[in-house]
Amino acid sequence: MYSEKVMDHFQNPRNVGELENPSGVGTVGNAKCGDIMRIYLDVDENQIIQDVKFKTFGCGAAVATSSMATELVKGKTIFEALQVTNKAVMEALDGLPPVKVHCSLLAEEAIHAALWDYAEKHQIEIPGLEKPVNDISEHEEEEEY
Ligand code: FES
Questions:
Q1: What is the largest CA-CA distance in the chain?
Q2: Residue 59 bears catalytic tag
Q3: 41: part of which helix (H) or strand (E)?
Q4: Which of 8, 51, 63, 86 has a CB 3.0–4.6 Å from the CB of 42, allowing a cystine?
């Protein structure tokens, strides 16, 4: 049911933990399943993500997608990180079962929330970044899978 990559990132998640004095932090949840994800970013003066950590209180797919999402944004600029969509994360994991697609949205939204926090603290604008929501299930009906 799960790809080998999903199982690998679930069993050996990369970048688990938190950062002291992060440049940006984002937390999002999905009230329908009760899962919560938090992402910490360390962004340098060139707006490159030097480090990223996550904590996920959630299902296996949520852990695997957070792990892969952190791998994909590390070393990228804050603008490039915005292009890391849930589809990109799923592709990098060789897919997810349809009922687990919503879990990958949690990873995308948590990164957006952390980028938003960074942008607010540094009074910059990241074009295309929308204000994050705390509960992504409110917007689920509008999402295209
Ligand atoms: Fe909610 Fe996976 S079941 S994030």
A1: 44
A2: no
A3: strand 35-43
A4: 51
**Residue 61: which of 9, 115, 121 has the closest Cα?**
9
Catalytic residue of the set 61, 103, 106, 107:
103
Which residues, including other chains, have CB under 8 Å from residue 137's CB and lie 6 or more apart? 30, 31, 32, 33
The pTM (predicted TM-score) of the whole model is 0.93
Nearest CA owner, ligand 1 atom 2: 103
Residues in contact with 70: Cβ distance below 8 Å, sequence separation at least 6, in sequence order: 14, 15, 39, 52, 53, 54
User: Model confidence over 13-42: pLDDT tens digits?
Assistant: 999 999 999 999 999 999 999 999 999 999
Tell me, using a 6 A CB cutoff, whether residue 29 lines ligand 1.
Answer: no
Q: Which one-letter amino acid corresponds to residue 124?
A: I
C-alpha span between 59 and 36 (Å, rounded):
9
Confidence of residue 141 (pLDDT cuts 50, 70, 90): low
